[in-house]
Amino acid sequence: MRKHGLDALIVSSISNIRYLTGFTGSNGLLIIASRSALFFSDIRFLEQAKLEVRNCRVHITKFGLYEEASRRKALHGASRVGFESQQITYAQYRVLRRLFPSTSFASTKEIVEDVMLVKDEAEIALMRKAAEISDQVFGEVVKIIRPGISELEIAGTISYLHRKLGAERDAFEIIVASGERSAFPHARATQKKIKSGELVTLDFGCVVGGYNSDITRTVAVGKASLRAKRMYDVVHDAQQTAIESARGGMWAKDLDAVARQRIEKRGMGKFFNHSLGHGLGLHIHERPRVSELSKERLRAGSVITIEPGVYVPGFGGVRIEDDVLLTENGCVVLNTAPKEFLIL
Question: What percent of the chain is helix, strand and coil (3-state, nearest 5)?
Answer without folding.
Answer: 35, 25, 40
